[in-house]
Amino acid sequence: MRIAEELLDIIGLERIIFVPSGDPRLRVAPVASRKHRSAMVRLAIQGNNMFLLDEREINRPGISTTVESLREYQNELGKKTAPCFILGMDAFIKINQWHRWHELFKLCHIIVVARPGYTSVDRYPVLPMDIRKEFISRRVLNANNLRLQCNGLIYTAQTSLLEISASHIRLLVTAGKSIRYLLPENVSDYIKSNYLYAGRT
User: Fold this and answer.
1) Using CA of residue 123, residue 21, residue 184, residue 178, what is the dihedral sign?
2) CATH of span 2-163
3) Residues 83, 74: Cα–Cα separation, whole Å
């Protein structure tokens, strides 16, 4: 939530829409059910009118892809809107594995944020050549440039680097350790009361 809050200021976004994923194409299905994942996002953004929950992928049967959701947004909002898709650097360096990944640039701008262990695209030694080519040709250094066209640009946002990840939190819960202060209290309480991740290895 902290990174999302910072991006509102850095980029001047009107709002941030959180879209919990359905069944992913490239990895095993999440441990928590669709219902629980959606509920946790709802609790996390509670009280912030700049944050919205969109359950389209949760409600979509079968495998869910980002490009499908972005096509829907373009149809709903119109081609003159400039949506920004936010993802971590750990995901960006594998974006060439995504379904119809080149099409993403026709549907949105891409905002890349640092993640633990992935602090700079520039210094990442094994960035695949096809991604590097797109990155070099599309990158803008000033967030204001994102307003000059409706899609196709990449911006690397300098946000706080928080050493928190969903996988780390799941491991702590599985080990019976405290996750206090790592999540909003209402989300932490929800995980405990619904026994999510407990007893898994």
Assistant:
1) negative
2) 3.40.50.620
3) 8
Question: Which residues in the chain are classed under CATH 3.40.50.620?
Answer: 2-163
Residue partners of 147: CB distance under 8 A and separation at least 6: 82
Q: β-pairing, 154-157 with 139-140?
A: parallel
Written as six digits, the tokens of 73 are: 């947004």
In 63-165, which ranges are continuous DSSP H helix? Answer: 66-77, 89-92, 129-138
Phi, psi of 140 (to 5 degrees): -120, 145
What span, in angstroms and rounded, lies between the C-alpha atoms of 131 and 93?
A: 7
In angstroms, the CA 139 to CA 142 distance is 9
62: left (phi over 0), alpha (psi -120 to 50) or beta: left
| Per-residue pLDDT tens over the stretch 62-108 | 888 999 999 999 999 998 899 999 999 889 999 999 999 999 999 99
Nearest-10 Cα torsion for 95, 96, 98, 102: 100
Show Cβ contacts of residue 190 under 8 Å, excluding neighbours closer than 6 positions. Answer: 36, 39, 40, 43, 196
Average pLDDT over residues 116-133: 75
pTM of the model: 0.85
User: Other C-beta atoms within 10 Å of 148: how many?
Assistant: 10
